[in-house]
Amino acid sequence: MNAQVNVLVAFYSRGGSVEALAEAVAEGARLAGASVRVRRVRELVDQETMQLAPGWIESAARMNQTYEAPSLDDARWADGLAFGAPTRFGSAASELRAYFETLGDLWLRGDLAGKAAGVFTASSSPHGGLEATGLGLYPTLAHLGMIIVPTGYGHPSLFRAGTPYGAATVSYGAERRPPTEDDLVVAAYQGERLAGVAAALKAYRSQIGPPPT
Fold first, then answer.
1. Within a domain: residue 1?
2. Which CATH number does the domain housing residue 75 bear?
3. Phi/psi of residue 205, each to 5°?
4. Cα-Cα-Cα-Cα dihedral of 155, 139, 179, 51, to 10°?
5. For FRET with 51, which of 115, 128, 145, 157 sits at 20 to 30 Å CA-CA?
6. Is residue 213 part of a domain?
7. Into how many domains does the chain fold?
8. Is residue 74 part of a domain?
9. Strands 147-148 and 116-123
10. Contact, 122 vs 169, CB < 8 A?
């Protein structure tokens, strides 16, 4: 990778599964030579609601102390963007969707057009909506003008874990299983692949100049 490439990993995680994938994506991007920012979007519900799920408040406090919230500057800074969220009833958690809805000014200016983007997710059961969640995020990336970078089957671990649309993991409900080694390998591969594509697109964007206003 010749030019410096910046990668933003923006995620929401409640129990830590998506957080673990986010860190693996970030590590893969760093290994590819990228500068990486890892950010966690914040809760939308009140403390009373959070108390209904044991450990939610404590987990959120820990992660919010560890990670800054993603900003418009983070998205503007990035050449590649990876978005992660757990599935909620077959689609991405609303906390991540809320961050997307702050990006209107960047969309209007075309600041995200031509940048590489990918998605990753987690569910509590094997058929809890992993693929639906990943695919459900694709239209948003397209509306923002970003170039979607799927994982495909470019790594052997993708025949045992993840999806062709992005890294994924299953926690199996109350068992709260952490991501498997293959899950994390796929996520790291995704970060490396995203950084590589982002580098190529950055060179392309520098040739064609800024989008028309």
1. no
2. 3.40.50.360
3. -65, -35
4. 170
5. 128
6. no
7. 1
8. yes
9. parallel
10. yes
